[in-house]
Here is the input.
Amino acid sequence: MKIRFMECGHCVSKESMMLQGGQRQKVKIPVLVALIEHPQYGKILFDSGCSERFYEATAKWPAKLTALLLPTFVKKEASAKSQLEAMGISAEEINYIIVSHFHVDHICGLKDFPNARFVCSSAALENALASKGWSMLKKGVLPDLLPNDLAERSWIFDKDSSIQQKPLDIFENSFDLFGDERIKLVALPGHHIGQYGAILKNEKEESLFLCADACWLSDSYRENRLPPNLAKLLISDWKAYKNTIGLLHLFHKKYPEINIIPTHCRKTHEALNLLQKSK
Here is the structure.
């Protein structure tokens, strides 16, 4: 499969909020979206990144608190839809969007893709649909960013009996989405309810592990380092989160050739950009 990466907006925070011992000055935190071109199932996105819709969705309380806690910035041309159009790909050509989880910076673009099925876990979808009023702060989902027909267009893969479920090495749950071992969805609990990552095989049969927000920086899984305790405010299940980072660390030690890609790691993004430009 051909895989390309896009930076769709950025958030601003201190690195020390993402990793113990990190820098205290504020830094730009990129938001990664992957375009996957499957030989049989066509064009697929892993998450949909930020878009200008973020500003509308956070204009009023209580959603405004999200923008205050995690300032987010995106220009129209940086949205996934705009970047795809610059590549000659229309929004209507996207057949699937794998939604790792329903935090705001991963779902701003969902409404831009009218033909896409939303691939998500049952727990993630249930939590998203239950987010209303002030409960959105606890559930971590902004309802205004959700398509009105989200439930009807969602492919709940962990409830689909036709998809094979089995452990993947040290990870308890994985799903071979299309049954061809090209896209394996891996449970990465802790950061947000129902979060999954994806292990993909590119055109060279190399494996890439998109781990979403299972950790924020590559130093976290490489060194098994956690964020500071204050970051617990942004994490759904701290115990599960710690365990997931530990598993990512062990997986990296066992398979150093597999590139693990957190959504928000600037170091990882810069390396990916160099690789893409060299092709």
